[in-house]
Amino acid sequence: GDSVTQMEGPVTLSEEAFLTINCTYTATGYPSLFWYVQYPGEGLQLLLKATKADDKGSNKGFEATYRKETTSFHLEKGSVQVSDSAVYFCALSEGNYGGSQGNLIFGKGTKLSVKP
Amino acid sequence: DAGVTQSPTHLIKTRGQHVTLRCSPISGHKSVSWYQQVLGQGPQFIFQYYEKEERGRGNFPDRFSARQFPNYSSELNVNALLLGDSALYLCASSLLSGRAGTGELFFGEGSRLTVL
């Protein structure tokens, strides 16, 4: 079945460092890809998404490009801040109309800690 | 506008009991999904409902059931609780878009269930 694999954490960086969190997927068909973020004590929030190959999702300085040839959707940010400390989840949606839109397959999550 | 609201936020049950978790979606959202998040793991899809009909079901036993009401709120029921049911139960609502799999899921903060 479909699956998502993301790099294990925790990841600890200094402020202004470059961030990469790797995510690869296995899917039949043409999934949409997402990054969700979970800040301490809060619910999951959509960070960015890409719905077809070569699309780049971006938000709050984070970027990820949908690479069909490598089945990857790596998350990057050029300069992290302390406020970026959170757990990041890569996810895919199978993309069938309607019925499976609520069915996201998540990776295990990567905890990021940014030190001042 | 209010986000997705879930109740209760925390609860403790003993093995063999049953539990009912409740979710109110964002106003105007007709789709509700339920996820189970075990500590240290990504969320696992349980159910999706749209217009009071089940649209998807994950790999969970029949002890898990759900329903959606005319006002689009939803309940998740778990019978004969096991220790392994201890988890954060997340509800998410969404608008179904014309192109499948592209919509955003909006998550509540979850109901944390502890089974003793």
Describe the protein.
- The complex is a heterodimer of chains A (116) and B (116).
- In chain A, 0% of the residues lie in helices and 49% in strands.
- Chain A is globular and about 45 Å long.
- The model of chain A has no long low-confidence stretch (mean pLDDT 90).
- In chain A, the strands form 3 sheets. In chain A, strands 2, 5, 6, 10, 11 and 12 form a 6-stranded mixed sheet that branches. In chain A, strands 3-9-8-7 form a 4-stranded antiparallel sheet, with no helix packed on it.
- Chain A has 116 residues and is an all-beta fold.
- Helices cover 0% and strands 49% of the residues of chain B.
- Chain B has strands spanning 5-7, 10-13, 19-24, 31-37, 44-50, 53-57, 64-68, 74-78, 87-94, 106-107, 111-115.
- In chain B, a hairpin with a 2-residue loop joins strand 5 (44-50) and strand 6 (53-57).
- The chains are: A mainly beta (116), B mainly beta (116).
Order of helices and strands of chain A: EEEEEEEEEEEE
Principal-axis shape of chain A equals: globular
> Structural class of the helices, strands and pairings of chain A?
mainly beta
* Approximate strand percentage of chain A: over 45%
Helical coverage of chain B, percent range = under 10%
- Measured by DSSP, the beta-strand proportion of chain B falls in over 45%
User: Biggest β-sheet of chain A, characterized?
Assistant: 6 strands, mixed
Tally of helical runs of chain A? 0
What's the Cα radius of gyration of chain A?
Answer: 14 Å
H/I helix tally of chain B: 0
The counted number of beta strands of chain A is: 12
Helix vs. strand class of chain B: mainly beta
Give the total of beta strands of chain B: 11
Overall form of chain B:
globular
Q: State the low-pLDDT regions of chain A, or none.
A: none
The overall pLDDT of chain B, averaged over residues, is: 91
